[in-house]
# Entry
Amino acid sequence: MAEHSRLNELINRLHEVQRELESELDRILLEKREAFQYQLRRGRVVFEKNMRRLQRQQRIGVWRYLRQADLLTVLTAPIIYGMVIPIAMVDLTFSFYQHVCFRVYRIPRVRRRDHIVIDRHHLAYLNVIEKLNCVYCGYGNGVMSYAREIVARTEQYWCPIRHARRTADPHRRTEKFLDYGDAEGWRKKLAQLRREWDDS
# Structure
């Protein structure tokens, strides 16, 4: 059991460092907002007039942008944008799933807006194509993050057991999971894990 207390100690230190990191990132973000002269008002980005004018001066026109584009990039664009259909299906089906099943299991629902952030299209130095690309990437990556958290909560409810071998990028909920092979812990702690949704 000594390895468990050591692991718990390391996890607690990791959480402490994560809180420090979040605080530092917030401080840096505030400095960046001041440097690039923008504010968030009710979740909306508002730039100072002079900064917007400077940004517009940096924008490359659409025709020049297309002329400078690599031919293979242009030819593969329909494949990239075609992925919006399966991404939207993931968004729709995972939203439906959690709104039905999480209510039944009493699992707190994942807030979409915490994962899907689309704001880069407000940048005046981007042309229409670049803005569309940024909207697409924000949506696609946001949906994957949203779906991952839904699946992680589902796993915590139904199968909170660590794998026998390490995985490449385990979600943060696995810290709470039971050890592989811990049959006694499984019987004793499953009900408790199904109620522990505090992310702190």
